[in-house]
């Protein structure tokens, strides 16, 4: 069961998924290039170590540098978390949650709705 991610953990994971292999420095530079809030090297290093502990990242040593890789593809993580979150909502709110999902499906554009139907049949 993949763990939920905090905001910074999710930002770090997005960068590692994008880079496929990443160092603390490469993630730090990417985060700082796209954010108004500068992150510290030690903050990103701690987050990446925590993600390794949570089994979201694996680490290998390349000389003096740690190189991280995601342990699960982004699509698999998102799908698993969506199942967990949707199941929790249905468990907590029952029929009301199901009705809310049904209403949301009806609000999206027909092309996207058809893609969802095909995914449901294939999955």
Structure overview:
The protein has helices at residues 7-19, 24-34, 41-53, 74-93, 95-107, 110-122; strands at residues 57-62, 65-70. It is mainly alpha-helical and 123 residues long. It folds into 2 domains: 7-70, Winged helix-like DNA-binding domain superfamily/Winged helix DNA-binding domain (Arc Repressor Mutant, subunit A, Orthogonal Bundle), CATH 1.10.10.10; 74-122. It has a two-stranded antiparallel ribbon with strand order 1-2. It is elongated. The two termini are 19 Å apart.
Fraction in helix: 55-70%
CATH superfamily of the largest domain: Winged helix-like DNA-binding domain superfamily/Winged helix DNA-binding domain
Specify the biggest β-sheet: 2 strands, antiparallel
- By CATH, the topology of the largest domain is Arc Repressor Mutant, subunit A
Number of strands: 2
Shape: elongated
CATH class categorisation of the largest domain: Mainly Alpha
Share of β-strand residues: 5-15%
Main attributes?
123 residues, mainly alpha, Arc Repressor Mutant, subunit A, 2 domains, two-stranded antiparallel sheet, 6 helices, elongated
Element layout with pairings:
Blueprint: H1 7-19, H2 24-34, H3 41-53, E1 57-62, E2 65-70, H4 74-93, H5 95-107, H6 110-122
Antiparallel strand pairs: 1-2
Helix pairs in contact: 1-2, 1-3, 2-3, 4-5
What's the short version?
The protein is mostly helical. It contains six helices and two strands.
């Amino acid at each position: 069961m993949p763990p939920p991610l905090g905001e910074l953990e999710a930002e770090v994971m997005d960068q590692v998924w994008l880079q496929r292999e990443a160092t603390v420095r490469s993630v730090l530079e990417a985060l700082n290039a796209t954010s108004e809030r500068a992150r510290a090297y030690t903050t990103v290093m701690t987050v990446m170590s925590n993600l390794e502990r949570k089994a979201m990242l694996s680490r290998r040593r390349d000389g003096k540098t740690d190189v991280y890789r995601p342990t699960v593809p982004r699509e698999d993580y998102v799908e698993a978390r969506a199942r967990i979150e949707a199941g929790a909502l249905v468990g907590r709110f029952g029929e009301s949650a199901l009705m809310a999902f049904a209403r949301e499906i009806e609000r999206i554009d027909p092309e996207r709705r058809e893609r969802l139907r095909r995914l449901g049949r294939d999955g």
